[in-house]
Amino acid sequence: MLRGRIDDRFSTVHLGGLNLDPREARTIRRIKILGCGTSYHAGLIGAGLIESMARIPADAEPASEFRYRNPVVDPDTLYIAVSQSGETYDVLAAVQELKRKGARVLGVVNVVGSAIAREADGGVYVHAGPEVCVVSTKCFTNTVTAFALLALHLGRIRDLSVTDGKRIIEGLRKLPAQIEEILKTEDQIKEIAAEYAGAQSMMFIGRVRGYPVALEASLKLKEISYIHAEAYPASELKHGPLALIEPALPTVAIVPDDDLLEKNRAALEEIKARSGRILAVAHQPQPKADHTIVVPKNEDELDPILMGIPLQLLAYHTALAMGRDIDKPRNLAKSVTVE
User: Fold this and answer.
1) In whole angstroms, how far apart are CA 3 and each of 98, 118, 126, 146, 176?
2) In 3D, which of 218, 241, 256 has the Cα closest to residue 48?
3) How far apart are CA 281 and CA 292, in angstroms?
4) Where are the beta strands (DSSP E) in 226-271?
5) What structural domains and CATH numbers belong to the chain?
6) 131-171 residue pLDDT tens
7) What pTM was computed for the model?
8) 10 Å Cβ neighbour count for 62?
């Protein structure tokens, strides 16, 4: 994913497949990211990365919703279509509709020469290799990393400083070793998963960068364990979901060491006050949590890449403890090529 793309001289990255020169990049006024399922969640993280690094308004939307609501297609908006297979029907149909209306569309896909890659004006291949199972894991991680590269590229064209560019590049280079460090905690995650495998339902919470991670973790658990799971912004707890908290409903909380750490800890206190069980994914042990999976700290912008990995392992070992067919979950297809 990173090999051959980092440019240390200018503290940026090379993404030649974008077909977007610097002058064109500076005319972009908004970015809209379209995907389905895991790709949509990666797009949510990508939108946050683009806004924070490139300072371009960005948001993500499910592709199927976008194509049916007769959207306004703005010539100053860059559209990004995200798909693991590159053949996802709802995303492909949205791309074709956008092209019909004269929009510029980039693709972020895994499969070289796929339909979306052919239809798009340019894009980024995530180079995750083939996914063995139906659900996307390594492709999710690589797709979010691809968005970090894109955000850095656009940021350095616009207002991101050389110093911040170097900081992000150093963080990107740390990722492989930090992922290896997380994988070494698999035995601990397996033990934790055995404790939660009997739950009928689970709640996942996170703030800002942590919320899309919670959404993806919730989806992974549903897909392969068949345990009902919901994801909410931690700030929304008091607006309804807190009524669900009881010992039988465990909560998985994304708690990075960032400027929202104390607010996230306050949410844990609210849950613990109602006798809720808490599993935290954090950069340090959380006193209010029953269990904490500690992950290495990277730059704030890149932390979601790492925090998603132990939650993939949690879903895997929960499903394994329940005897599920992890590679081929019921009712799901590897590539959704029909409506």
Assistant:
1) 32, 23, 11, 12, 12
2) 256
3) 6
4) 228-233, 251-255
5) 6-180 (3.40.50.10490), 185-321 (3.40.50.10490)
6) 777 888 999 999 999 999 999 999 999 999 999 999 999 99
7) 0.94
8) 18
